[in-house]
Amino acid sequence: MNGTDSLRAFISGCEGLTLSSRELSFFRETRPCGLILFKRNCGTPHQVRALTDSYREAVDDAQALVLIDQEGGRVQRLQPPHWRQYPPAQLFAQYHARDPEAGLVAARLCARLIARDLHELGVTVNCAPVADLPVPGAHDVIGDRAYGATPDAVIALARAVANGYLNGGVLPVLKHIPGHGRAGVDSHKSLPVIECERAELAVSDFLPFRALADLPLGMTAHILIPAIDPEAPSSASSTIISDIIRSEIGFDGLLMCDDLGMNALAGNMKERARAVLAAGCDLALHCSGIFAEMEDVASQTPLLSGDALRRFNSALGRLKVPQAFDEDHAERLLAATCDNATS
User: Fold this and answer.
1) Is 61 an annotated catalytic residue?
2) The whole model's pTM is what?
């Protein structure tokens, strides 16, 4: 194996259920440090495992990351009938409000069940938990993906979920730093502008991320905060990444941008990749599987080195053999939690 220091600092998508010959050649030549899966890539357990194995064989590194968004609710790439439908974060927020301790146990065990599914497929990273703090009137792009409306609830539940993933041999991703909860528009479609002073954000939106800053990986929000940087969205703002994410929030984990293909960002794909890496993101995330865009991102992306390599290796060091747990009990508890929430 060539080693993680010759992997490239970007995460790529792919087009379908298997890697095409040109995708295999591309991965062999460029060696992206991660592959992210979407619904289009997930057919059956056997097929997904073959896909993750073929990616790692192509980049010649068994430690290369395979990522997915498997939050539950609206954001779930692995779907029935081969995988169960998991509930959204809001369900655990409601349960936690009635019975805090039981809510935390249920959230952790749900995450542990998700980790079980992912580990069997060779998926090592789940892009969760969402630690955004929603406010009344905000766009519902976060909505029921949030673990509550107060920092304390979000912190407690997101921590329980992260621990569930870690105990199951899967790395969590803290998102969306420094906070997408106030967004009035969906950043997939346009750039949200957060008209709020830094001092107010520091005692609200930033708090969950500060409390969870020890998690191994994080994802930026594509948002504009004029009071901090009037020009660049967070993912492409050296001010926000250095002064807020790294310093004030204290996050020193492996930091990826949100998807480069989202319309919140301006410029072509080469310009977007250059901007997020120059601003201080460790990794550029590109999700579409559109081959020409994959080539453009790779052309602007360096090998992992320096702090990015240190953080990558530190994240890998958090991966562990899944801890034994009572799967039947977890399944029963999750079913009861869902039943109670709807009764």
Assistant:
1) no
2) 0.96
